[in-house]
């Protein structure tokens, strides 16, 4: 799949108009094999005050590299390559592929695992993140399932310092797993974690996650393969901070709690 995304002929077929940056629904074809993908050219990135200009595509790819190193497949295959509008990230499309003249269908946002419900209708076994009011002033609860795939995604977001884990960025993969998209706002040297997945805050990390994090910490050491891969996409300081976040998770052995000095939940949450 990475070879197809990297070397295939890229054809833009439409644009996701709700995205903040240029997000182009495309098809990539190589040796008779075609797949739908999302092409985000660097030229279409909107400048931000807290992220260096022209780096979001690199962060999208770095998120995939981290996901692959963890072995959790929480980010679809993503590459950095040239395209019709210049260099950018190209990521495998998660959703229903359609004809060239039809609008693509996105997988169910939230993957059936994240929702906003009345406070008295929280599904059994689900975790409540917060209670609030909707635009009409009606009480609602932001909730998510106590799901192991979703929990791994929450840990991934801590390591990647994801500043934008909205419910709509969580999708159901074709094989039945859970994956996340839209990782341009990651790997900042400052603490930026904003997510809808706070349900495990303060809880002990499962043993299997601890073991994966230990291996990840070794891979992020100066001589580690992951360290070298990330250095081609991020700054040295950003890679160092990533390893520090893993070390902090291992030291505490628990999911972090929201910080009091910043907004811990992205807006809109979905």
Features:
6 helices, alpha+beta
Helix/strand layout:
Elements: H1 2-7, E1 9-15, E2 24-30, E3 33-41, H2 56-70, E4 78-81, E5 88-92, E6 95-96, E7 105-106, E8 114-117, E9 127-133, E10 139-144, H3 148-160, E11 170-172, E12 178-180, H4 207-219, H5 225-231, H6 236-252
Antiparallel strand pairs: 1-2, 2-3, 3-5, 4-5, 6-7, 8-10, 9-10, 11-12
Helix pairs in contact: 4-6
Quick synopsis:
This protein is of the alpha+beta class and 270 residues long. Helices cover 26% and strands 22% of the residues. Helix 4 (207-219) packs antiparallel against helix 6 (236-252).
Give a structural overview:
It is a single chain. The chain is of the alpha+beta class. A hairpin with a 2-residue loop joins β2 and β3. The strands form 4 sheets. It has a 5-stranded antiparallel sheet with strand order 1-2-3-5-4. Strands 8-10-9 form a 3-stranded antiparallel sheet, with no helix packed on it. The protein has a two-stranded antiparallel sheet with strand order 6-7. The mean pLDDT is 91. The chain is globular. It has 6 helices and 12 strands.
Helical coverage, percent range: 25-40%
State the end-to-end distance: 29 Å
Helix-strand category: alpha+beta
Count the E strands: 12
Secondary-structure element pattern, one letter each? HEEEHEEEEEEEHEEHHH
**Neighbour order of strands in the largest sheet:** 1-2-3-5-4
| Radius of gyration, in angstroms, nearest whole number | 18 Å
How much of the sequence is in beta strands? 15-25%
**Could you describe the largest sheet, including whether it forms a barrel?**
5 strands, antiparallel
Average of the residue pLDDT scores:
91
Query: Tally the helices: what do you get?
Result: 6
Uncertain stretches of 5 or more adjacent residues: none
* Shape annotation: globular
């Amino acid at each position: 799949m990475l070879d197809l995304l990297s070397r295939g002929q890229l054809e833009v077929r439409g644009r996701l108009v709700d995205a903040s940056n240029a997000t182009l629904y495309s098809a990539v074809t190589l040796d008779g094999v075609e797949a739908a993908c999302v092409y985000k050219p660097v030229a279409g990135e909107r400048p931000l005050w807290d992220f260096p200009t022209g780096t979001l595509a690199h962060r999208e790819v770095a998120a995939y590299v981290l996901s692959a190193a963890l072995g959790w497949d929480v980010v679809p295959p993503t590459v950095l390559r040239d395209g019709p509008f210049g260099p950018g990230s190209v990521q495998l499309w998660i959703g229903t592929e359609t004809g060239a003249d039809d609008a693509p269908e996105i997988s169910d946002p939230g993957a059936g695992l994240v929702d906003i419900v009345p406070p008295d209708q929280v599904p059994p076994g689900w975790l409540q993140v917060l209670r609030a009011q909707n635009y009409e002033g009606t009480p609602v609860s932001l909730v998510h399932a106590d799901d192991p795939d979703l929990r791994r995604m929450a840990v991934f977001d801590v390591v990647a310092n994801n500043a934008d884990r909205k419910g709509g960025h969580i999708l159901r993969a074709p094989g039945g797993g859970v994956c996340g998209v839209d990782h341009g706002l990651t790997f900042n040297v400052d603490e930026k974690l904003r997510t809808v997945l706070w349900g495990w805050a303060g809880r002990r990390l499962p043993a299997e996650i601890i073991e994966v994090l230990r291996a990840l910490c070794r891979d992020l050491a100066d001589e580690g393969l992951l360290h070298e891969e990330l250095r081609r996409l991020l700054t040295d300081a950003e890679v160092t901070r990533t390893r520090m976040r893993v070390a902090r998770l291992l030291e505490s052995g628990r999911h972090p709690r929201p910080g009091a000095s910043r907004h811990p939940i992205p807006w809109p949450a979905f």
